Amino acid sequence: MTIAVGEKLPDLKLKEPTADGPAEVSTGDLFSGKRVVLFAVPGAFTPTCSLNHLPGYLENRDAILAKGVDEIAVVAVNDPFVMTAWAKETGGLGKIRFLADGGAQFARAVGLDIDLTANGMGVRSKRYSMLVEDGVVKSLNIEESPGQATVSAAAAMIEQL
Question: Which of 113, 123, 41, 30 is nearest to 74 (CA)?
Fold first, then answer.
């Protein structure tokens, strides 16, 4: 079942880039006591993710933070080395948190996984955005198609804040 507004996110481990290489981060720690915008993409370096979804959040970072958000994070079913390369390539390293959900554990736990095996991608995350306050989902915006980034875009999130 898909996680719903008002529910608490599961406490799982993800990986993120650091100066010393990939480090483990607990979702419980990531969201505890904070107001976080989390958005998910089916894959780093894929067209919609790299040309539309991520750039929108990078361009609107200051506007989002000005609305009382503590952090912005992106999660994808990719390994931490791919997420590190994507963060560096896009200029996003140090601006938002890049989280690797390598085995799709988080995507499955929140019911937002999608099987893109027919496209050669395997199990990935649906494209979505959510506002999380102290670990609880306050808003959730799921795209109908993985190739679209409208309801989960930064501009739509700003309207919800």
Answer: 41
Task: Please check whether residue 131 is in contact with residue 157, taking contact to mean a CB–CB distance below 8 angstroms.
Answer: yes
Q: Alpha-carbon distance 138 to 23, whole Å?
A: 27
Taking a C-beta distance cutoff of 8 angstroms, is the pair 15, 80 a contact?
Answer: yes
Separation CA 65–CA 83 (nearest Å): 22
Indicate the pTM of the whole model.
Answer: 0.94
- Residue 7: partners with Cβ closer than 8 Å, 6 or more residues away: 136, 137
User: What does the pLDDT look like over 99-108, one tens digit per residue?
Assistant: 999 999 999 9
> What's the burial of 33, exposed, middle or buried (CB within 10 Å: 0-12/13-18/19+)?
exposed
Residue 62: exposed, middle, or buried by beta-carbon count in 10 A (0-12, 13-18, 19+)?
exposed
CB 106 within 8 A of CB 40: no
Q: Which amino acids are annotated catalytic? A: 49
Distance (Å) of CA 110 to CA 40, 63, 77? 12, 27, 13
Under the banding of pLDDT at 50, 70 and 90, the label for residue 121 is confident
